[in-house]
Amino acid sequence: MTAQPRGAPLAAVIAIGVLWGLNWPAVKFLLTEIPPLTIRAVSFPAAALILAVIAYAAGQRLIPPPEERWPIVVTGMLVVFGFNVSTTLGQLLTETSKAVIIAYTMPGLTAVLATIFLRERLTSRQVGAVGLGMAGLVVLASEDFGALVAEPLGPAIMFVAALSWAGGNVALKARQWTLKPLALTVWFFVVSAVVCGVLMLIIEPPWNQRMPSAPALAVLGYHIAGPMVTCYALWTIIVGSLPASVAAITALLAPIVGLGSAVILLGEPVSWQKVTALVLVLASIILALLPTRAEE
Fold first, then answer.
1. Are 187 and 76 in contact (CB under 8 A)?
2. Of 218, 260, 267, 275, which one is least surrounded by beta carbons within 10 A?
3. Of residues 20, 2, 1, the one with CA closest to residue 239
4. Residue 6: which residues within 8 A CB-CB, separation 6 or more?
5. Count of C-beta atoms within a 10 Å radius of residue 60
6. Measuring CA to CA, which residue among 114, 89, 117 is closest to residue 102?
7. Are 62 and 235 in contact (CB under 8 A)?
């Protein structure tokens, strides 16, 4: 087998961070023409199908044993459906730049939930990570506290998205899975596609919608091929084997790219509160994800 270049895994990590970061303004643009549940009802099954082909080509078993089926449903509803649908709805009600910052409090929240449900020890570093993340939210709220009190739903939904992602990751850690990560991800998308498809037919029936424009369809194609397929495939196949300190680059790049692209592509304003909140959240991510000396 040909040796993999040393820079290839790091390049994959950077690509994931950039693609996931650019997904924030991409979804915001899609929302100008396509309802939120419809975006996910199209992207979830498309991603499931493509990832299933990749997993099958890699020789992975795709059929889960009976004892894993309900855990797959619960975990998929949290880590794929809950996070992705909540972030889409949240962006309808708040600026993308703010949504990104709130969403990336999730590593600190994961540490708290792991302590509660997995009985993991909460280290001083993790306490600091949670504190920095919450401080970032306070600074962000101070930008326009009156508007937050008047219309709290958008930020609240984004915080639910962060909790959903954190809960999904705790559910992933809670058991030893027989399926490999990529095959598991396929089923997470399948579960989410079924639920989202039913909700779309009830709330956003396609026969009441207009055909999106060519630019919107192109961005939808990027959303599926990039963040949904490429990122999940790279993360499970390549990045999963990297040290946490290297993989953390993804979590650091995505909010930076997300906020920066929201400012550049969507014309959202920059404020010292957003910049300060982003710095605090990035510091929180570093504390939450970088390994301790015993783990290195």
1. yes
2. 267
3. 20
4. none
5. 18
6. 89
7. no
Ranges 149-153, 170-174, 197-201, 273-277, most confident: 197-201
pLDDT of residue 5: 46
Q: Where are the domains of the chain?
A: 10-60+68-289
pTM above 0.85, yes or no: yes
The two structure tokens encoding residue 232: 């999940």
Mean pLDDT for 277-283 is: 91
Number of Cα atoms under 13 Å in the Cβ half of residue 168: 23
Structure confidence by residue, pLDDT tens digits, 231-267? 888 887 776 666 655 666 777 889 999 999 999 999 9
**Smallest Cα–Cα separation from 248: which of 293, 282, 277, 295?**
282
Q: What is the pLDDT of residues 46-61, one digit of tens each?
A: 999 999 999 999 999 9
What is the CA 143 to chain-centroid distance, rounded? 25
Tokens 């919107």 label which residue? 216
What pLDDT sits at residue 114? 86
**CA 211 to chain CA mean position, Å:** 27
- Taking alpha carbons only, the member of 71, 49, 74, 75 closest to residue 62 is 49
